[in-house]
Amino acid sequence: MTTSRPAEELYDTANDPDEVRNLAEDPKYRETLQRMRLSLGGWESETQDLGRIPESHDVTAYWDDFFRNHYRKNMASRGLSVDVSNDEYLDWWDKELKRMGK
Q: What's residue 77's pLDDT?
């Protein structure tokens, strides 16, 4: 729970399923991290993934606007304010799931 995401993350999900301890900077896991970097690089090349190339301001502005409007429409369709609190939203979901019989 930090304000920014680390450049790399590596977790032992068998022993740390909540991914609390980032092992990326632990020298003990250097070889594992290197192997995974190579694997990721191969996958990016194979799939032509462009995720590491920064998008233009116009592209990010488009998607920011798209998701902001999507959120507003969803909240309006649920009868909720865009400023709904976490507790209010959880209450809404509890009622919705009961309505659905779940």
A: 95
Number of domains comprising the chain = 2
Range of the domain at 34: 1-53
Other CB atoms within 10 Å distance of the CB of residue 44? 13
To the nearest whole number, what is the mean pLDDT of the chain? 93
Total residue length of the chain: 102
Give the tens place of pLDDT for each residue, 7-57: 999 999 999 999 999 999 999 999 999 999 999 999 999 999 988 888 899
DSSP line for 39-78: HHHHHHHHHT--TTSPPPHHHHHHHHHHHHHHHHHHHHHT
pTM of the model: 0.50
- Strand, helix or coil at 94? helix
In this structure, the answer to whether residues 73 and 95 fall within a common structural domain is yes
Q: Do 36 and 63 sit in the same domain of this protein?
A: no
User: What is the C-alpha separation between 64 and 58, in angstroms, rounded?
Assistant: 10
